[in-house]
Amino acid sequence: MRKCSIKMKVTLWYTGILSVILGIVLAGIFIFTNVTGLSVTEEEVQGAVTGFVGNIRFQDGTFYMDGDTEFYNDGIMFCVYDQDGQLLYGSMPVDFPSRTALQSHNARIIENGQKQWMIYDAAYSYGNGKALWVRGITSIHNMEVFLLMARRALLILFPGIVLLIGAVGYFMTKRALRPVDDICERADHISGGDDLSQRLPLPKVRDEMYHLTERFNEMFERLQKSFEKEKQFASDASHELRTPVAVLISQCEYLLEHGELGQEQKEEVQVILRQAKKMSALVSQMLMIAREEKMADPEQFEDVDFGMLAEIVSEEMESQAAGRGISIHVDVQEQQIVRGDQTLLMRMMMNLIQNAVLYGREGGNVWVRVFEKNGMVNGEVEDDGIGIRKENLDKIWNRFYREDKSRGEEEGTGLGLSMVKWIVKVHGGRIRVRSQKGKGSVFSFSFPENR
Fold first, then answer.
1. Which of 92, 121, 196, 332 could be 224's S-S partner, Cβ–Cβ 3.0 to 4.6 Å?
2. Contact 191/44 with Cβ under 8 angstroms?
3. Residues 200-221: pLDDT tens digits?
4. 3-class DSSP state of 173
5. pTM to 2 decimals?
């Protein structure tokens, strides 16, 4: 029950409550129908016996029966007994117990096997201590059979009625909660995109959905302001750090070139210089990310031959790869046109290939492929390097994340892959990674083809 959706929970509660109410109502109908049917039959038999006695005349210590007296009328049979219980007039139904005792003014139900009758006896005194008994007999078997069949029919229909109630309840609940699903879908779309300036449309009626939508819009507004402040801070901080870092690098280079330093002092200055250059690269990347995120505009995209772009970037990276003895193999199909920003796409390929070279095996290989498949422009950058642990595959896209144990002392800022993922997303594409520890990695991506 805890794992059920709200729609299912409401439906189950709604169906359960209505099923209990329906069960109580049906039980009440059964009892009322049975009691009412027997009561009506009892009154009919009593009235019929009273009416039948009108055919008997008591006079001078004896009685007389009218010549046109009928002993069967409207389903009721009449029997006349003397004071000793001997049948004088009339006949009994088949299978009726003939020895049924007479009880004055008492309606009763007599059973014999599956057959049932209701009888009513009335005693009338005449003469000197004499009595005459009149009995009315009517079958209630048909009524009981009808009630039994009605009960069975209702019991058979009951599960169907419950299922119908459940289906109707689920439909009503689903329809009532449809605005919530719409809100969640739109909220996912906004939160999954890069444009937090979008807002949910407010319902026309100021109900609970209206207030929920307002709260979501307020939350998106706060998030938008927070992200804008964060981006602005990164941009401002990067810009302000460029000058002191540049001064630090120039002073270190001056000391190494013109300063009278001992060997140990030179080594210390070289450490400072290396770290300053690394900081400079990090600041430059942060500033570039901040600027490109502001400037990226899909309306300004143009047609880019992605195959040619991949070849150009691969050629530029060959010198860096040669420094580690790594060979870059390029296999691209011609005329793979992507609608996008050429600068951003080049930066994406450069980061992927640089990442493959940086973490590849010395003397190893890097494969760059671009091809068309299923109406998409697909690409792969594969290396035979150190690979990535399975549990860390989803973390590599985070900014500043580096898999320390596997990547050791290798250089890198931890911003390259996060920028790659952002660029792919801006262009409406997808990127995935397959990797096995110690056997290399494959970064595969796809973009909508523009023909």
1. 196
2. no
3. 778 777 777 778 888 878 887 8
4. helix
5. 0.49
